[in-house]
Write a structure and sequence with these properties.
Elements lengths: L1 H14 L3 H14 L8 H12 L5 E3 L4 H10 L9 E3 L1 H6 L9 H16 L11 E4 L2 H9 L3 E5 L8 H11 L2 E5 L4 H7 L17
Parallel strand pairs: 1-2, 3-4, 4-5
């Protein structure tokens, strides 16, 4: 088995001699398959409701920055709708750890508070942040950052209860799970959205 692995490793390195070469190939391949990516209507509607209610929204991902921006643009999001887009490159370039560590979310929050300070707005605490996630890795990161997380479980297993309780006890935050169809109702129930949606007004960060 070790010989097979060594041969596979050598072949892989022949094709992608550096991490940059692999990421470039990954970016090109995702570009070819953009037609397979569709926006999730329920999530996009929620993002727009957040924006219309004056709530800052950030996109935080473990994918390379340009892949995240490419996918967001393809699915109909405007980059300037977001306070920021934080991908793998941004996290690593700042000497931080990727999910499941809480670093990506804490970094995004610190940047957001820098933006808010420049606009003479009050800073946001981790306990005031809400994260929408689908993977357990992302949920662990959000909880380690002391934030509330909602895991979308249409095609995923929810977090283990014992692990979730331990993470909340150590770091704070909170955890919920729901399907896409249940998301808006849950957000209203926990007070993250008003029961009556705000009138639609375009909001773009300059």
């Amino acid at each position: 088995m070790s010989d097979v692995f060594a041969q596979w490793s050598d072949a892989f390195l022949d094709i992608y001699p550096t991490a940059e070469a692999f990421e470039h190939a990954y970016f090109l391949e995702t570009g070819k398959r953009l037609h397979e990516i569709e926006a999730i209507k329920e999530v996009r509607d929620i993002v727009h409701q957040f924006l219309e209610n004056g709530i800052d929204v950030s996109a935080v991902s473990s994918s390379p920055d340009r892949v995240v921006e490419q996918d967001l643009a393809h699915t109909g999001y405007l980059t300037d709708e977001f306070a920021q887009v934080v991908g793998k490159d941004t996290v690593v370039d700042n000497g931080l750890y990727l999910k499941p560590y809480g670093d990506p979310y804490i970094y995004a929050l610190n940047r957001l508070n820098d933006f808010r300070d420049g606009e003479a707005k009050e800073p946001v605490l981790p306990s005031e942040c809400l994260v929408l996630e689908d993977t357990k890795t992302g949920c662990r990161a959000a909880l380690k950052a002391g934030m509330t997380v909602i895991q979308i479980i249409d095609d995923k297993e929810p977090m283990d209860l014992e692990e979730t309780v331990d993470l909340i006890a150590e770091h704070g935050g909170n955890y919920y799970s729901c399907t896409f169809a249940e998301l808006e109702t849950l957000l209203i129930d926990i007070g993250a959205l008003p029961a009556t949606p705000a009138p639609r007004t375009p909001q773009h960060r300059p």
